[in-house]
Amino acid sequence: MDWNNSHWEEHLRQPPIPNQPDTDEMQANVKQKIAELGGSRGSNTDGFLCGHRLQEVTPVHAPDANVYDGGDGEAHDESTQTTHNPTGRERINRTVAGMAAVAAAVVAAVGSYTIVSTYHHGGHNATSPPTPRLSTTQVQQTIRHIEAGHTISNIQVIHSGFFEGHEFAFASYEEDGKVSYASVTKDKDAMSTDTSTPSLSGNAPINSMTAVAQDGFLLVTGLVLKTSHIERIVLAFSDGTVKQVPVSDGGFWFTEKVSPKAPLIYVKHVVGVTSTGSIIENQVASVMQQG
Amino acid sequence: MNEPSLADRDELIQRLISDFGSDIWNYIFSLTRNVDLADDLTQDCFVRAYTHLETFRRESTIKTWLLKIARNLVYDQMKSASFTRVAVAPKVPENLGSTSAEQEALKNIVSEEIWRMVLTLPDKLREVLVLHAHHELSVAEVGELLGITQRAVRTRLHRARSMMRTLLKEGGWNGLE
């Protein structure tokens, strides 16, 4: 190939990896996160044109009406609530001023992007969008709980983030002196944990284990013989896909969420690539299907 | 400046995602080297853009503004969590099929290899190189985004290119450096 000095930089116009995000999915996820914030009423109103519109209403006798709690902090569409005093001495018709819908013209010309938006102000300014992630303490507690009875040490949270909308963490630890891995997923109220303790048998340079949970959670972990000088692992899956993961501290891991409806996916081949480029192939490996 | 239209905030965000979603994702990925985190933080970036649209001052382009939000999120994350060591590789082409397909595949392999090297650069050098070479931001725009002088940007760019030349040479890509 004919190259000049700047050609390598032209390659950087390509994306860093070929598997690019699906913007449709991104839009859906952002929309969901915004909805979780309470929709557009989660907007910070600082600097916005914002006001309350009061509405007069005709008094209505409503003997069985519940007392309206106007202080719930929730946004309501433009609405009128009637409060009835059981003694009957007075009737109060209350226009819920604090909860009145606010028509706000949000005008922010953004280059070629122009916004004029109407939103409802809920009587409070929302905070920044929350991005909860499992803390190290939560992960450590979960692992110690699930491995009760074993001697657990050196718990290291390798990754903490989100997986399919759930808080997710991946950690390594030592169970009775053996390197083990745990994936921890937080559902609404519970922690779901998968653990694996790969081991090297005989002189096998690589040993990996695939755990497939019923919800489609796929976890591959493994160890390599340190004297093998394997730096990277290529995982060939039963559906034909190939993934590459680095070896770190003699271990490797890979996790992916696959559709529960899809056929069982497992690792068919594990290939190790050494620092000198040599290839060490292993026919794999145990597959454990979990409930 | 355009006159305000009736397009609402939701629609705008959807459009921003459509136009810049991949750019933001790639930028975050180049900083974090983590696919899952890039997914999460890209979504957070647009949520934050949604809730802070009014803070956009038009002193920069919308893309630069989004990149800045993304950068803040990444650095917040860096302070609070350790990073995964997993790197998800693309599918390996199973059947190259034709000569043009082979050339395309070869080109992709070269690009991937160069990106792999870029991702090993120190954070500060990598970021400047990616913003300049991939996102095609000017030196002034990079400086504004990172809050550093143009001179500092040029220095980092020079060092990044110099390191890349060394990496290319070491990797046997002698014609490329």
Write the layout of secondary structure elements.
The complex is a heterodimer of chains A (291) and B (177).
Chain A: H1 7-10, H2 23-36, E1 80-84, E2 91-95, E3 106-110, E4 113-117, H3 136-146, E5 152-163, E6 166-175, E7 178-186, E8 191-196, E9 206-213, E10 217-224, E11 230-237, E12 242-246, E13 251-257, E14 267-274, E15 279-283, E16 286-290
Parallel strand pairs in A: 9-16
Antiparallel strand pairs in A: 1-2, 3-4, 5-6, 6-7, 7-8, 9-10, 10-13, 11-12, 11-14, 14-15
Chain B: H1 9-32, H2 35-51, H3 62-80, H4 99-118, H5 123-134, H6 139-146, H7 150-170
Structure in words:
The complex is a heterodimer of chains A (291) and B (177). Chain A has three domains: 48-126, no CATH class; 127-197; 198-291, Immunoglobulin-like (Sandwich). Chain A is built from three helices and 16 strands. Chain A has helices at 7-10, 23-36, 136-146; strands at residues 80-84, 91-95, 106-110, 113-117, 152-163, 166-175, 178-186, 191-196, 206-213, 217-224, 230-237, 242-246, 251-257, 267-274, 279-283, 286-290. Residues 1-5 and 39-130 of chain A have low confidence and may be disordered. Chain B is mainly α and 177 residues long. The longest helix of chain B is centred in the N-terminal third of the chain and has 24 residues, at 9-32. Chains A and B meet through α1, α2, β3, β4 and β5 of A and α1, α2, α4, α5 and α7 of B.
Task: Give a quick summary of the entry.
The complex is a heterodimer of chains A (291) and B (177). Chain A is 10% helix and 38% strand.
The secondary-structure element order of chain B is: HHHHHHH
* Helical proportion of chain A, percent range: under 10%
Oligomeric form: heterodimer
Biggest sheet details of chain B: none
Shape call of chain A: globular
Count of individual beta strands of chain B: 0
Number of helices of chain A: 3
Give the rounded overall mean pLDDT of chain A. Answer: 60
Q: Spans of chain A of 5+ residues with little confidence (pLDDT < 50)?
A: 1-5, 39-130
Shape call of chain B:
globular
CATH class call of the largest domain in chain A: Mainly Beta
Query: In order across it, which strands form the biggest sheet of chain A?
Result: 5-6-7-8
Order of helices and strands of chain A: HHEEEEHEEEEEEEEEEEE
Distance between the termini of chain B: 44 Å
Largest sheet of chain A: 4 strands, antiparallel
Return the CATH architecture of the largest domain in chain A: Sandwich
- What structural class do helix, strand and pairing data of chain B support? mainly alpha
Number of strands of chain A: 16
Proportion of residues in β-strands of chain A? 35-45%
